Amino acid sequence: MHPVIDYEKCTGALACYEVCPAEVFEVQEKEGSKNSIVARPEDCTECEQCVDECPTEAIKLVD
Question: Residues with Cβ < 8 Å from 31, sequence gap 6 or more?
Fold first, then answer.
């Protein structure tokens, strides 16, 4: 399983990037705002810290 971000819900809090122990996420700056992207889905350890910490519930783990 790996994380998927719903960018309609994402506010760019970067909580997922900050808590991920496997460094699955990277920060991408676009048009003056920053968002996390799933850069290394294969490194996900399925700890669900990103899911738990996302303030807008924009992340879920999928197969």
Answer: none
